[in-house]
Specification:
Helices cover 42% and strands 14% of the residues. It contains 14 helices and 12 strands.
Length: 333
């Protein structure tokens, strides 16, 4: 590679929370390096040291059933490249849609850039719909030509956006939902999709009505009319979720946690137990039917401990709940 071409590669970088549009941007003739910063920022405590990064790699690997070494390597490389965005490029383009996965990644990137004394040109492409797409889930649905049509819609990102991103990032990793609610009580609309995404995040806390998270309830209610494969359950949950944000591997991890509970609300149809997980068929147990009927509280069954951002959920946790009646969180007593 010549020196001139090497310098050209440093002019622009596209940042996204996955690789799904990387090849399409090349096909569209939109030049630049690419950084896939795919760490699911809504999941669990964040690394503050090398040891913490190892623990985070183990957390993600366990949820996705991936090799820890591969996850650790990907996290380290993405983090190293993120730290060099401000000094390594003249033009940073952020490609994010409206859902929690994307918005959590976006605020992490903005928080990293916020303290930098000198900034590159930063622009954001953020959408929650696209003409002709019946239900817009994400940018990965779009063709190269459709992505190219978004290029003129780049929004300049300045210090105000970075400050909101930094505050949102600190709130997301806090051990209490109060910083998120304090943020939402202000006006974070400079980042237009942040509010809805963070409300969806809080809805993964146990609900005051039955102790289930929204995703757990979608799983159980998806089985109300009979057994279904995990793949069918995932499609059904995506269709009914007001703001779907997790991929199939994370969804399957929630199914696994439900199955692993001391008393499980679901069970695998035995004849399908050895099949790959998308093909395994699940049905409700009597406990699952009771939960759907509103007669029990899931947290009383001592399900597996989990995290909602930096908030621990489960036995010994602080007991934060989502109250659908008020649209706020409350603490169980």
């Amino acid at each position: 590679m010549t020196g001139r071409r090497a310098m050209g590669r440093q002019r622009r970088v596209h940042v996204r929370c996955g690789h799904d549009i990387q090849a399409k941007l090349r096909m569209a003739g939109i030049a630049g390096d690419y950084l896939a910063f795919a760490d699911p920022m809504w999941l669990g405590p964040q690394a503050s040291s090398v040891a913490g990064q190892d623990g985070r790699a183990r957390l993600i690997a366990a949820h996705c059933e991936l090799p820890v070494t591969a996850v650790r390597r990907q996290l380290a490389e993405a983090s190293w490249r993120l730290d060099r965005l401000a000094t390594g490029y003249h033009h940073v383009v952020l490609w994010y849609e409206h859902d929690l996965y994307d918005q959590a990644s976006l605020v992490r990137v903005l928080a990293n850039l916020a303290p930098r004394p000198a900034l590159p040109r930063i622009e954001l492409i953020a959408v929650d719909r696209f003409p002709g797409v019946g239900r817009f889930i994400g940018l990965g649905q779009l063709s190269a030509g459709q992505l190219a049509s978004l290029w003129p819609r780049r929004m300049p990102i300045g210090r105000r956006h970075l400050a909101i991103g930094a505050r949102a990032w600190n709130a997301l990793r806090a051990g209490s939902p109060r910083p998120i609610e304090a943020l939402l009580a202000t006006d974070p609309s400079a980042l237009p999709f942040l509010r809805a995404a963070f409300v969806r995040h809080l809805q993964e806390l146990p609900w005051t009505t039955d102790g289930l998270s929204l995703t757990e309830r979608l799983i159980l209610s998806g089985l109300a009319n009979g057994p279904r494969s995990v793949a069918a359950l995932f499609r059904d949950a995506q269709a009914r979720d007001p703001q779907p944000y997790m991929g199939d591997l994370f969804f399957w991890s929630i199914v696994r946690d439900l199955l692993a509970a001391p008393r499980s609300p679901i069970a695998i149809v035995e004849a399908t137990r050895r099949l790959d997980w998308p093909c395994r068929v699940i049905h409700l147990t009597s406990l699952g039917r009771a939960l759907l009927g509103g007669g029990l509280d899931w947290q009383a069954e001592r399900p597996a401990a989990r995290w909602v951002g930096g908030i621990p959920v489960g036995a010994g946790g602080p007991g934060w709940r989502w109250d659908p009646g008020t649209g706020q969180t409350t603490k169980a007593h």
